Amino acid sequence: MEVDVPATPVVTISTYPGLDLAAGxxxxxxxTVVNGGPLxxxxxxxNGVVMPGETASTYVNSNLVNGDSVTCQVLxxxxxxGLLGHKSVTIHVYxxxxxxxxxxxxxxxxxxxxxxxxxxxxGTLGTTDDEEVSxxxxxxxxxxxxxxxxxxxxxxxxxxxxxxxxxxxxxxxxNLRSGSDNKVFHLVIEQ
Length: 191
Known about the structure:
Shape: elongated
CATH superfamily of the largest domain: Immunoglobulins
Low-confidence stretches: 96-104
Order of helices and strands: EEEEEEEEEEEEEEEE
CATH class of the largest domain: Mainly Beta
CATH topology of the largest domain: Immunoglobulin-like
Number of strands: 16
Strand content: over 45%
Number of helices: 0
Distance between the termini: 54 Å
Number of domains: 2
Largest sheet: 4 strands, antiparallel
């Protein structure tokens, strides 16, 4: 008689070119598994959200933003199948070119978060000039569900956004772009 001792898969993630990237640079994540059995199952997640179809031992993405968390979950196979192991890494994305230096710096917030599809974007852009600001909300597949341009007077923004009540619960992204600031916010809708 042979007894298999259950062992949780141990996952290691290697990255190429590394954890520090330029905006728009392609990153390749490769998972290595110990105790996964002969045919472990893989599932990649971005910021805790399952990436549909990403079930191989590698994952490639060129749309990462600063602070994104990439996780690989591995389900073991073999004599003791079904044990789950995982590993996460955090990406650091830096801008390219020369950034404008401002005395105050930008400080923009999205409140409340989580929300029911109604929230406010408020704060300062780090400039005292009037600037047009582009607000764009996308789902996790990149489909635009809201787009608006607003004027930030004297560099201040206080814009209410109502996405309606027809959206599914989950994570969305707000892209804020102006001449002096570019930010990406992750927002959670809980209807």
